[in-house]
Design brief:
The chain is an alpha+beta fold and about 190 residues long. It has helices at about 25-40, 50-55, 85-100, 160-170, and strands at about 5, 60-65, 70-75, 115-120, 125, 135-145, 145-150, 180-190. It contains 4 helices and 8 strands, in the order E-H-H-E-E-H-E-E-E-E-H-E. The relative contact order is 0.21.
Length: about 190
């Protein structure tokens, strides 16, 4: 079901500990919650959740793509729910309407959309941009009350990540910003 993971677990070698145990099932949980929310139904959490999902908390982002274009992306840097599984469901329900850059996602679009589920594995730390690895770190920029987050899969270079984050936050290119990086683990469905 899943094609690629970033941030600590690689199929066929590398690190063996995953920040998101049973990652394919987490994608399925997100997809089912999306489907229910898209038609206005309540989605109860399954009772047979992995213990690792109910014993820890983490921020979560869900990105919906069509082809190589983002259709919607929304989530939480810090956990808002009682555990990881509840966070995944809440973010899946929210992504349909809370990315104000795009019109709300409709139920009939879901079969054509690919999911990327991102779990925040370390809190944002202030850094110099030179300390950011674009394929490994998410970026948070702040300028006064304006802020925005960009995930690693959204940009190709540090400069591009910072540009996208400033653009999302409505911050001018020449305005000074506080820059933070955070580590994530991303699992994604195959291309549709």
């Amino acid at each position: 079901m899943y094609r690629r993971c970033r941030g600590g677990f690689r199929r066929g070698g590398g690190a063996v500990m995953s920040p998101l145990p049973d990652a394919p099932r987490a994608l399925l949980l997100a997809r089912r919650a999306l489907g229910a929310a898209a038609v206005g139904k309540r989605f109860p959490l399954p009772e047979d959740l992995p213990p690792e999902w109910t014993s820890r908390r983490a921020g979560v982002f869900l990105t919906l793509t069509r082809g190589n274009r983002v259709r919607a992306c929304w989530g939480t840097l810090e956990p808002q729910q009682r555990h990881l599984a509840a966070e995944i469901v809440a973010v899946a329900q929210g992504v349909l309407t809370r990315d104000t850059r795009f019109p709300p996602v409709r139920a009939e679009e879901l079969p054509q959309l690919r999911l990327l589920l991102t779990v925040v594995v370390s809190p944002p730390q202030p850094v110099h941009p030179a300390q950011i690895r674009p394929r490994e770190h998410g970026v948070l920029v702040r300028c006064g009350h304006r802020s925005a987050v960009v995930l690693p899969h959204e940009g190709r270079t540090v400069r591009h990540l910072l540009y996208l984050a400033k653009q999302k936050a409505g911050i001018g290119e020449q305005e000074a910003v506080e820059v933070y990086r955070f580590r994530v683990f991303t699992v994604e469905e195959p291309h549709r």
